Each structure stands twice: as structure tokens, then as C-alpha cells.
Amino acid sequence: MSLYKSALKYSGRRIISGGDIEMGLKKIQLESVVILALLVTPLMVGESVHAQVQGRVVDLTLEGMVDLALSNSFRVRQLNMGIDRTRFRLQAQRARLRSRVDLNLSAPDLRSISETKWNSTLQRDEIIHEDSRRLEAELSIRQPVILFGYPTNGYLSLNNRVYRYAQTEPDGDKDLRYYNRYFIRYTQPFFQANSLKNNIEEAELDFEDTQLEFYDDVVEIVDDLSGDYFELFESAYQRIINEARVANLTEAVAAAEELALTDTTRAIDLGQIQVELANAVEQVQQMESQFRLQAASLTTTLNLSPSDSITLTPTIDVRPIEIDVEQATQFALQLTPRMRQLNITYRESEINLENTRSRGSFRMDLAMSYGREMQDPAFRQLWDRPSNTYTIDVNAYLPIWDWGQRSASIASSRIGLDQVQLRIEQAEQQIRSQVQNQVRNVEEFEARTIAMEGNLALANDLSVSSIDLYQEGSISALELIQSFQRESDTANNFLDAYLGWRRALLRIQQLTFYDFETMLPVLERFGIPMIDPNTQS
Q1: β pairing state of 309-311 and 57-59
Q2: How far apart are CA 424 and CA 493, in angstroms?
Q3: Can you state the percent helix, strand and coil of the chain, rounding each to 5?
Q4: pTM for this one?
Q5: Residue 196 class from Cβ within 10 Å (0-12 exposed, 13-18 middle, 19+ buried)?
């Protein structure tokens, strides 16, 4: 029985272990067993002993490989840091919706200086010497005005200003004054972009875009790891194919030795088969070396300890998968970040157009305040008889002529918006076309894999029959070797078809963010949680 056939999981077959191989070869003569033991067994046993001495042995599966990478990968750690950075930026913008308390101090402000000032009574400039001591503090509680959850871009503040002012006169007298004013103030811009709302929305869009990039990168990591896994899988399975060829040729050597004892004309067959056996053993050694190098490279990718070693048991499981094209297309449009990222870009372009229209256009700012104030030489009298105060400020800006600067800027921003819309339409068409082609690709590789599965079973039966025919003298050694080669070629073709099918499934998985084998979204399958902007990862 061929060794690679035992690696197939279909029809209830199990994987053959090293002990099964030895039991299957008991019929072979002792000399051939010694050759096989000397050339093949040390490669398998020696690697296991070496791994146990130096570190742990990781039995690799695709899910386990992804879990290791997502928990240990430097790339994933970088992605998490990017998420944290944009999360804190969003939190900083959202904090602008809450009250702020500021205290401005000028303590002290000392002046002893001569300055020129205009005397309106004398109608001339005078040199005035100022010798003053000023202590001032202003406390402000500022709150953005939000109506029905909508930031208005206006601010309401409670303020209290207190200062002590002392002026020394030329004759040595001192003019001392205390001042206190507490008031409420409201400011509101009109006819311009709402910078508070836009800044917060841009921060939210930026965080969502970073989150989508994180998910896209995670799926890309899963795809890259899956590619590495199946490359290692290919090397491990090709080793099984070569070991099966060694087993067949070893059995053929035993048959040739028996024939040579009874028919001296068949003695040349023994040399031909032994040469083929030596070549097959060399191919086993090559695949062992290739597997070892690929596994060593993966230890770095998975951030494992250099002393750890990787093993892989290649099991082929051919289960036909039905993929509905329309359903897959909807997954690609809804689950993948591409369309949402384009919509984010479109919204950002809309905000940019709004800001562009606001710049250089008519605008007006309204500011009003009402409060109470008192000035007195004695600090304790500041709250006795305060007087009412109020201010009303209306400032307007009216552009007259700018040589078309504003209109050209608006036109440029509008074209940018139209470009994003075209990219959205183009992306949707590309996704539909790519999904349709990839589903067809999966179906073709699946049909080829199932067909080659049957061919491999037939080739295996032919190899078994060929040994019987050779022992009967019905076929030559060359025909027997060709039968074994045909079996190996069929096994390699089956492996190529299977890996093509697996890689086609990986591509449709990356296109749709959906795993059609487990019927789960990729992020859910590998336990990737949704990111909360209010918590740190």
C-alpha cells in the first residue's frame, strides 16, 4: 500500500505512522530493510530527537499557525499601536464637547517705564511714566453649545475676572484699586463651516479607517500565513510521495532478488531497480532538507524560540464546497473594508468641500455677554454694590474680489469628490468581476482535484498489480519502474490540483472576508474582536 494514499482523509482512511510502515515492510528481505533503515529512518528519528533536546515541538495546523502569529507577530503589535494612536486622537476631539476650566494668572505684572501717550486735552503727546503693580486672575468655565446632540460651533462660558492695581504717583502717593467682574458670555459663528463637528467627524472617520486597515491587514496576514502553511504542506506531502516510491522500489528489489536466483537472465533487473531506489532515497533526503529549511524560516515568522521546531502532518481532505456567486459578491461588498473605506474617503471629500466653501466666503460672528462688576479701593467692598455690564459684538466679513480664487478652489474640491464617486463605481464592478472569476476558478480546481483523486487510487492499484506481474515474469523491470513513476507523477498531479484548489479558496476568502468551508466570516473564525474606540487594546 502506498504511503501517500494513507494521508488522504476521504473514505475513512487514517494516517499511517512510522510503525505501520515498518509492519508493511516485514515481507521485504532483511538487506533491503537495512538499506531503508540506514537512509530514511535517521532523517525522521534524528530530527525528532534533535527537536526534543533543543526545545518544544510545535505540531503545526493552519488555525494554530494563525493564532501564534496574531499573538506573537511584531506586525500585529504595530497594527495595535496604530489603533491606539487614532483612538486617543478621537478621544481628544470628543473631549472638546465637554466643559473646560481655565485659570489665567498674571501675578505679578510689574511696570516701571516711560511711554509716549496722546493727551486729548492738551492736544499733544506727553511722556508718561508708569510705575504700577498688577495682580490679575481670570477663571473661565467654557462649554460648547449642543442642541439635540448636534454641536452648534457656539460656546457658552462663565467667567470671573479679579485684579489688584497699584499706581505710584510722582509725588509718592499710591493709587490702589481692586476690580471684580463675573459674567456669562455666548459666542456663535454664522455662515461658515462647523469646525467642531467636522473635526470630531474626521477623527471618527480616521479611527474607523484605521480599524478597517487593521482588519484588512489581519486578513492579509492570515492569507500570507496560509500560503506559507501550504508551501510547508507541499514539502511534507512530497516527502510522503517519495517515501511511497522508496517502499515500492524496496519491494521490487526483493522481487528482483528472488527472480535472479531462479533466472540468471533477470539479474540485470536488480541493478536497475537498485539505482532507482538510490535516486528515490536521495529525493526523500532532499525533501527532508527542504522541509527543515522552510520550518526554520517559519519559526522566525511566528516569533517562536530558535530552539523550537515545527512538525506538520499533511492530511488531504477533499470536501466539495458550493459557493453562490451572488452571495459571495454581497460578502465582498459588505464584509471587506474596500467599499467602506471608499465611502469614508467620499465623506472626507464632502467635508473638505464644505470647508473650502467656507474659506473666503461671507461670515459673521456674534458675541454677547452680561454680568456684574465693581471697582473699589477696598477689596472687601467688591461685592457690595456691583453694577450691571453687558457687551454685544457683531463682526462680519464680506469678500468683494479675489480674482476667482474661491470659485477655483471649490471647483477643484468638487472634482475630487467626483473622482471618489468614480472610484466607488469602478471598485464595485471590479469586485463583481473578481468574485465571479474566482468562484469559477474554485469550481475548476475542485473538479480537477476530485478527478485526480480517482486517478491516484487507480494508479496505486496498478502499481500493486505491476509487482505481481513482474514476479510472474509478464513485464520487465523497466515497465515496473515506469509503473511506479506513473504512480508518483499521478500523486504529484493530485497534490498540485489540491493545492490549487486550496489557494483558490484562499483567494476567494481574501476577496470576500468569508470562509466558505466553515461558513463563518474570517474575522469571526479566527476570533478577531470588534474594536471599541473607547477602550485601549
Answers
A1: parallel
A2: 41
A3: 60, 20, 20
A4: 0.75
A5: buried
